Fold these 2 entries.
Entry 1:
Amino acid sequence: MGEPTTDVIQGTLDMLILKTLSLEPMHGFGITRRIEQITRDVFKVNPGSLLTALRRLERSGWLDAEWRETPNSRRARFYSLTRSGRKQLAVETSDWHRRIEAVARLLKAEG
Amino acid sequence: MSPWRQLHQGLRRLLDRAGTDRDIADEMADYLERAAAEHVAAGVPAEEARRAAHLEVGNAGAAIESIREYGWENAVEHAGRDLRVAVRRLRRTPWFSAVVVATLAIVIGANTAIFGLVYSIFLRRLPLPHPSSLVAVRPMHGGPVIVTYPEFVQLRRNPGIPLTAAYGFAGMMIATASGTESLWGDVVTGDYFNLLGVRPLLGRLLTPADEASAAPVVVLSAQLWQRLMGGDSSAVGRALNINGHSFTVVGVMEPSFAGLYFAHRVQVAMPITAAGAAHIYDLANYYLDFIARVPSGANRAHVAQLYQSAFSACCQTTPASIGADAASTEPRISPEDPPYGDTSYGSANPNWHVDLTDASRGLTWSTDFRDEYRQVLIGLLAGVTILTLLACANIATLMLARAAARRREFAVCASLGASRGRLVRQLLAESLVLGIIGSVVGMVVARLATVGLVHNLPAAAATLQEAVTWHGDGAILAFTTLTTLACTMFFGLWPAKRATRVDLLSSLQGHRPGSASRRSWVADNVLVVSQLAFALVLVASAALFVATLRNLAGGLGGYGAPNVLLAQISGDERQGVRPAVGPFAEDIVRTTSAIPGVTSVSIAFSAPAFYNGEWTRQFALPGEVAPQGARWSSRINPVDEQFFNVTHVAVLTGRGFSSADRQGSSPVAVVSQAFVRSYFGGRDPIGRSIVFAGGQGTVTIVGVAADTKYDNLRSAPVPMVYLPFAQFGSGLQLITLIARVNGNPAAYAVAVGKRVMAVASNLTVSKVSSLEGVFASSLSRERLVAIFAALFGLVALVLSAIGLYGLLTYRTARRTAEIGMRMALGASSTDAVWLVLRQTLRLAVCGVAVGTPLALGVARLVRSQLYGVTAADPWVFGGTGAVLVLAAITASMVPAWRAARVDPIIALRAD
């Protein structure tokens, strides 16, 4: 057995991002760290996929993005959840629970 | 999802690529900096912290690239880049590009021109508001019924039926500055223009008040207004003399309105009551046509029922019968096209019933007009489809050869990671660029072709040309775009797929492209053979149609010579009476014969191929019994003694007429062969008598004349009785003058007119035309087909020759080394030429073998359109095959010459 996998479960990255942003607006690096902290390093997020996902979510209208000045006069892009993003999070969360339960039942039945 | 947001942000990125790229870079830089800052905060030295951050992020460039790849705008950008590269590449090979664009332009132009015909004949709607609710109302009782104006006045009082307008046509003679213009005018009820929704260009159109008061007013079509008054805006209020009566012009119709009938332009319209008052139209006896508006959503069957009871309540059930059924018809004046073709519809239903016919696309004079053109257009569409396939195969050959030369380049691209789809897309971009340029040029070609046709067809067919002319309608643009896309896919996709199926190793090692591929060799052969076969089909059809046209035009033997002048002479209409022309016949012949250059002149009621109305009489033949009590009737034609000489209608037995056959001498007749066949069963009729019904005289047959054609050049010859003009022509109000002249008949038109009018001041000369012109206008459909077929055949021949030339050049170039080797071993240059020629002949023979059965099949399909030539004419098919082989040999000249000039030393060193 090698190291335990830290890949984000396929299809859940969007939900993780939406959940993270539901607490407060944040920049890309903040989202990565927050996901890692809350999941206690079970999931590591690849910056390329994260930033692409952010763009996709923004295009879909679930996120708003704005540039803010950083202390060392650079620009940082801050993302916040929109109203339809909040709805989407609810949809994805309930969907996720439904699937988890189904898998859990299946595993229990087998055990 | 928010498509609007997708579109908006995608567009913003397309427009500001640099800005969005900077955004992505900034965001990534910020990410890295924060990651590094975190490490620094944990006590790691700055340099090491940055390295750790980069390690965490991985390849930042690739990450940025993957972020950039997101979004639909990237596909657009790639397409744009592919197109730019394609344009650059095509400019590097101008000859190739020019040939492909020219080929496409011709094909797309031909497609568009023919679709333009289909569109204007079958699809275009009348330029009126809500055309789909227009219906022609046709009352029937066993057959079409004559409904006259007084009956219509009763009919329209019926509250159950929708608003209905009635109209008819009448021959009108309009006095102009330079003489008299005869035309068919419309006589209409007051609601006519209002119901159709026609707007005036000037003044006003006709109203119910005009009908009620029988006001002597007319409205002109914009075209006639231009012609008669030069488009003078003060035309309203002017007087026009029509059939000797003064009418006031009250308005001009909008230019877009050309009338209800296809290929028959409305020229002038007057209230039907005014036409009746001026004796232009016989209100009590002439039949009317009806137009109404019934919304397409309404229950038309129910509306037809309403009409049925309305018609049966007010109208008599006289069937409209014209022609053979009538006891005898008197010769009738016919200024232009006879509007009496539309009497063949109807059913055998003996009760009243009313047809509501869709009029949204205009009506036609004869019910089979569209059927006739449908056949022609199906033929033309088939031809143009074959031509398109041929051209696409041709371009595909060229594209393949071009792509084959780039194999090594493709292999390099593929080894650098380009996907096959990417390579195919790039090649397709080239096809698309060619397709777009080709279609734009093609539209211009189509316009020119249509304009060219308009000029090429005879003036008498002007209304038809006008009717088939189009001006960049949306439907035609859409059609051209679709055709272009389909062609591009055909000639682009397949070569692109084949060319990009690269074997990396062998391509990079420098094997000659495709040298080992037997499959591609076969595919090239198939392409070229199919081109030759298609060309054969088109050339053979062209030969058949051109032969048909020639046979039809030459169907009257020596009469068809180019030096015959025809003219109609009638009494003057301005005085409202029609004096007989007959008594002046001898003077007319004498004075016109005296014109220098006129060699012979004849006077007759009608001349072969020159429509002048029909004159039929019923008769009995003593000694012959008509089957089952049928009544015999025949056309009659009073002619003078010069007629048979001038028209070259041979008198086969007996004698023609002479100056001895005059008033007072015993009445004689010459009958046609068809008459002898029909009524005497082929037995010798000389000396027998014809007794005309109604006490109109008895004549003795003194001769038999060869058959000739009077109306339709395609129709079978009809029985005809020729009578001496001196005995039977004196009461005629309208006669035909036939003159043979030296040189161009048009040059004599003015002199003939002057001499005739000098005979008696009340004679009018009209329809002065050369026999050639008459043929041309009566054969305009055949000409249209022959011109198109000949063009298709020519283009097909040239294209297939180009295709063959391309293939042979390519193959000869590839075999240079082999030929050099052969020559080094002692082969002569003749052997080298033979090498190429043998290949050519093999391909050409294959093409002929495949194409001939195809062409025979196509010829069988168009059999009904042919005349005087069979669908399997050995001369046509043998000749076509020979032409094709000859073209193939011509195409192989240059490659063969190159093969013969191969220098073995250079050829062998090159590899």
Note: The two ends of chain A are 23 Å apart (CA to CA).
Entry 2:
Amino acid sequence: MSGAINWTALSVFIFFFLLITIMGFAASRWQSRGSKRSELDEWGLGGRRFGTWITWFLVGGDFYTAYTIIAVPALVYAVGAYGFFALPYTIIVYPIVFAIMPKLWEVAHRNGHVTAGDVVYATYNSRPLELAVAVTGVLATMPYIALQLVGMEVVIQSLGLQGEIPLFAAFVILALYTYSAGLRAPALIAFVKDLMIYIVVLAAVIVVPMKVGGYGAVFHAAAEGYKAKGSGSLILSSAQFLPYATLALGSALAAFMYPHTLTSIFAAKSPNTIRKNAIYLPLYTLLLALIAMLGYMAYAAHIKVASPNQVVPALFESLFPSWFTGFAFAAIAIGALVPAAVMSIGAANLFTRNFWKAYVNPQVTPSSEAKVAKIVSLVIKLGALAFIVFVPTKFAINLQLLGGLWILQTLPSVVFGLFCKKLGGRALLLGWFAGLIYGTWTVFADGIKPVHTLAGLTVYTGLWALILNVIVVIIVQLVLGKNAQSAPARA
Amino acid sequence: MWIILLLPFIGLLWVPFYNQAEPSLLGFPFFYWYQLLWIPVTAFLTWLVFRHYHKGGEE
């Protein structure tokens, strides 16, 4: 594994990394059509002009992240069928996107909203609720960016490079072109990244079964592996039914509440761009399912690893020639850059619109707004880098789990207003608060576990918290009645 | 019409429907190919709803 530097793989890796670096800097000219590039709409949303294809690559690029490529097969390798909850999750997420996101896009487009915080403030005229949504978004995103770096670190180490310098270098490059090109950089790089990932995964799912004797043999080897280990299985135990289903549902509800996914949605050109993407994006889910299968293929290929996170790099190294291993690792590392860029942009938009403009400088001009967002995106990335260097990876993973739970609690505030005009900001704020406190406390009390047993039902803790959240919203709304409603701030 | 978008939720979230190894297909246990099958089915259902309500809309 690690140790000696694999020069062929490293050369291919560096070539592709340089290619996308050039693309990243060139991206600022792409699609801008001579408009005023200094505004936040341009930097943070790519001018809201992304059509079906660009949106497809962009959402595909930032929703199916590098961490996914490393972590999903790692989980499948460790526990078996249970790790596949990502599959139903990323299927049912699209009917949800189809039903909700075009409506949200219309509200955002009509009023020039850039973030979920903007939407919430305009709908409920509540600064505290706006701040709650914005802070939740930034907090949930930080560990997510940090985990992208974990994905990158894993492949860089597999190339035989030691120390933190390579990671620093990659990150400085990312920071610079995001600063100069904004959302256009990850949108353009996503084309290359996604094509590379498709090639790598298709090669893997064709070559691996050929080498080991078909998919029947892959599943058989995995079943034997779990039997020998004494844990994990190819189908679920009945105790896993509810955790499996609720993790899928809860994750699907949370997925498009994140700043990075919402940013790619708001950057779309029209509601039908989003609807068409809800039809075409499941192709990425097929890819994800095949990626998850890598966890089983590792058994068939007799891979032995110290940590499950090494499964994917180890599998590629043992099966492919050096040049293709370099190509695959470059795909994963670039796969980390796209979501990390969009995440830092989404979080920077939140800070700028819902904190800076709301509290520090309400008279901020559009061009200095963009300037603030650019600088904040740098700070956020540095923060994520510091996180990964100074804090144990386990902590970032735990925080990411909590982040999913937190962001899910913003769903009522962001979405319910699209379908129901009767709710007030105060009820939603109290619901958010109750869900957040209950969920966080429960996760810690359970020793950082994603599921919690209540009344004999073991369910994703984030979903329990959401249920409490909604109950609180309804009760407070009924108690306060009409008084809780407030006129919209901006029509 | 939009109600058909609820089908994937029922088909995928009710795990006892599909938590079994047989019948297998091309080496894939039922648990896997059944869920994989929902990918094109869900896309198709979404397309039907799109065609029904939104086709005329501008891109």
Note: The interface with chain A takes residues 2, 5-6, 8-9, 12-16, 19-21, 24, 26-29, 31-32, 35-36, 38-40, 42-43, 45-47, 49-50, 54, 57-59 of chain B (CB under 8 Å).
